[in-house]
Design goal:
292 residues, alpha+beta, YojJ-like (1, 2 domains, seven-stranded mixed β-sheet, 53% helix, elongated
């Protein structure tokens, strides 16, 4: 076992004998232990690297090497079993710090393997620049009307990256985008007003959807369930959330967990142009924002 190989400390002749014995009697169990042990270290390093946590990755490797030094030198202060426990514990702490990113990673892997992506409703059709501008105008007008009347709303602008579970939690609509439709869904007495509306391209895909809540505690206490859901979905999927506060009427734009409050007309237009520009770019069409 790997722990037996580590147990020789800095006694190099004994260590060499252990290495020879290890590879002589190499079996499936040894291979599994090695893969798991170094797989954990590799995965943690990958998560830290992918999230630009260079300094934290440096700390992680320094602590790994310090643990290895205590295991090998100074008479083997750290026992082999405790060294394995130390590595697992240290790796677990790093993964807990980046729990959202880890969840997103496994969510993406699961979707890639099972095809658990939302259906691309409406993407088979072609749309012009005028169609996109009409959608933008309708969405902005609806948001401003709801803001004036303190009507709570949560709209998710999807790029086809939402898990099917999110869409299945609501009601499929597949309707053209209009101010009246958006306001009707979020009317306080409407049955779907508490959930999220999903817009995919030029269609309202679903409404009344339930979203994962953010687990981060850095946001203001006045953020309720609607805001935490709007933030949470941007942490696990490539989407933009548009939120209207029921208490204050403040409109917020959320992208990758970053919240922009007090979004005015120009900010909403810019966010929606960016969204539809990407959508049209994928179709090989001209940007709705003109020359960029």
């Amino acid at each position: 076992m790997l722990t037996k190989l580590l147990a020789t400390g800095y006694n190099f002749p004994a260590l060499w004998e252990s290495i020879v014995a290890f590879f002589t009697g190499f079996g499936v169990l040894y291979a599994v232990e090695i893969v798991l042990f170094f797989g954990i270290i590799f995965f943690v390093s990958k998560v830290l690297r992918d999230n630009d946590a260079t300094k934290l990755m440096l700390v992680y490797w320094v602590m790994l090497l310090a643990g290895a030094a205590m295991r090998v030198f100074d008479g083997g202060i750290m026992t082999a079993t405790f060294f394995v426990f130390y590595v697992v514990l240290l790796s677990s702490v790093m993964l807990i710090i980046f729990n959202v990113e880890v969840k997103k990673y496994f969510w993406d892997v699961h979707k890639a393997k099972t095809g658990g992506m939302e259906s691309n409703t409406g993407n088979a059709e072609t749309y012009s620049q005028a169609d996109s501008e009409r959608c933008i105008a309708n969405i902005v007008k609806a948001l401003q009307n709801m803001s004036k009347n303190n009507v709570g709303a949560l709209i998710v602008l999807s790029r086809g990256s939402l898990p099917k579970q999110v869409l299945q939690s609501g009601v499929t609509i597949n309707a053209e985008i209009s101010t009246q439709m958006i306001e009707g869904v979020f009317f306080p007495k409407a049955p779907l007003h508490d959930g999220a509306m999903v817009i995919h391209g030029h269609k309202i895909q679903a409404a009344g959807c339930f979203l994962p809540l953010t687990q981060k505690t850095i946001y203001p206490k006045e953020y309720g369930t609607r805001h935490r859901a709007g933030i949470g979905i941007t942490e696990v999927a490539n989407v933009i959330s548009l939120i209207v506060s029921e208490e204050t009427g403040i409109i917020s734009i959320v992208n990758q967990g970053n919240v922009t409050r007090y979004a005015d007309y120009d900010m909403l237009i810019e966010a929606l142009k960016d969204y539809y520009w990407q959508d049209m770019a994928l179709s090989g069409k001209k940007s709705i924002g003109g020359n960029r």
